[in-house]
Amino acid sequence: MTSQTSQTSPDLQHDCAEDSYPAVGPLAAAEPGRLLITHVRPYGEEETSVLVEDGFIKEIGCDADAEADRVIDGGGNILLPGLVDMHVHLREPGREDTETIATGSAAAAKGGFTAVFTMANTQPVTDQPVIAEGVWLKSQELGLCDVHPVGSITKGLVGKELTEFGMMACSEAKVRMFSDDGKCVADPLLMRRAIEYARGLDVLLAQHCEEPRLTEGAVAHEGETAAKLGLRGWPRVAEESIVARDALLCRDYGNRMHICHASTEGTVELLRWAKSQDIPLSAEVTPHHLLLNDDRLHTYDGVNRVNPPLREVRDNEALRDALLDGTIDCVATDHAPHGSEEKCCEFEHAKPGMLGLETSLAIIAEIFVHSGLADWRFVAKVMSERPAQLTKLPGHGRPIAVGEPANLTIVNPDATWTARGAEMRSKSENTPYEGMSFSTQVAATILRGKVTYEAELS
Ligand SMILES: [Zn+2]
């Protein structure tokens, strides 16, 4: 477990971090042998066959009956680079009753993902190398999905003292993103220090934007619906004030930063401004903030409680436009499993969060591709390429080309399936899409040449 990279002197930390790009910690081995994928359409374009050898793409446009150890008939489906999710909660260590690295990896593979970043609000909090290494090494033993641990920005997520970014960045987990997600780093001086520290190591900070004084006791978007239903409101300004503040901190202290789960029209305006000023601020949006709004709260069903809350139609529209024009960089699921006792209770007491890994591709395809707003190259960009670029993650989000690692997803755009919490690979069932039908389904997922998921043929 020990290596020369666990040195702690500041100089070595710096060198190590530089060396750590593009390397990652010890990877699960690529699948040896030859895998032939026939009749697939890369990015939804011309049909071809792809030959994978020892985990890498060896040939595109090969003979459909080339010799191989295994053949997958793509059936004319779409081939995308394996999806990358910058924001999930796999709950291990501490809440293995709701999700584990194993069940979360299986859910990720079923959703088309080959790499995910799991947030630090575990129990104990991922604020030390040993916890991060445990997550990373377990995911590599399983070999279903690369699960990269996110380190916390502050010790114990209490917002008082910074963690040792350098130690975590240099650990075997090679932590490359830090976030207190679930909580906001509300103290502006502490955030300034975090930005300065992160800059030296070239790691990404991801902020959960929520001014805590403005959301005390809040459970729903502050608006007409919450007022009618008697629910305490979470105003847009609680998010936007932190986005604005952090954009300015980013500008003045010069490091890139990432906004988690953008949820309001105003946040989009601020991001647009920041990008126009060349401030290195990136952002993600969740499928649920693109698709759902607070109309759903009338049933008082705890499954609809999420943080930030479901907002209004005009926010959905602004977020969609922003993803289309690049103001928002990527999609992230914020996959947040909870047990039924945490969701089937009074709305105010329900834990915020929704499942996302197994439905996200279907939702993004529905909103953008089936509607004609965008094509599959767009989906590859916002669900694979951009998240891999933002996290400087090697081997993922790469073009489908000879010599690249075979991290791939085969997508059936003409399936018919219905989301059911009970049928999810996730250990929890809290999907807000229960009973909803979709037409896009992952047919197979491939990690370094190994098939990690394959839909049952109907
Ligand atoms: Zn969050």
Automatic annotation (TrEMBL):
Active site: 334
Binding annotation for substrate: 89-91, 121, 307, 338, 352-353
Keyword Zinc listed: yes
A GO CC term assigned to this protein in UniProt: cytoplasm
Catalyzed reactions per annotation: (S)-dihydroorotate + H2O = N-carbamoyl-L-aspartate + H(+)
Pfam families in the cross-refs: DHOase
Protein name: Dihydroorotase
Source species taxonomy: Bacteria, Bacillati, Actinomycetota, Actinomycetes, Mycobacteriales
